[in-house]
Amino acid sequence: MTHETLVIIAKTVGLFYLMGFFILVVIHTYRPSRKAQADLAANSILTTEDRPCTK
């Protein structure tokens, strides 16, 4: 195998690996069962002083 052949194989396999990994991360992030955890994480940095006044 020449260096050029290895580079082509590495670029192709790497592309499909990263595409597959991206798809898995998106699926894991946007599952409906993760909504409660996402809401908790989104609101966890807010203190009572940071929230809007409710009158």
How does this model look, in words?
The chain has 55 residues and is mainly α. The chain has helices at residues 3-29, 35-43. The protein has a domain at 1-32.
List the topology elements:
Layout: H1 3-29, H2 35-43
Please provide a brief summary of the model.
With 55 residues, the protein is an all-alpha fold.
Main attributes of the structure:
55 residues; mainly alpha; 2 helices; rod-shaped
**Total of DSSP H or I helical runs spanning 4+ residues:** 2
Q: What structural category characterises the helix and strand content?
A: mainly alpha
Could you describe the largest sheet, including whether it forms a barrel?
none
Percent of residues in β-strands: under 5%
Mean pLDDT: 86
Q: Low-confidence spans: pLDDT under 50, at least 5 residues?
A: none
Share of helix among residues?
55-70%
SSE sequence, one letter per element: HH
Please state the CA-atom Rg, rounded to the nearest Å: 22 Å
* Straight-line distance between termini: 73 Å
Write down how many β-strands occur, each being a DSSP E stretch of 2 or more residues: 0
Overall geometric form: rod-shaped
Query: Which assembly state applies to the chains in this document?
Result: single chain
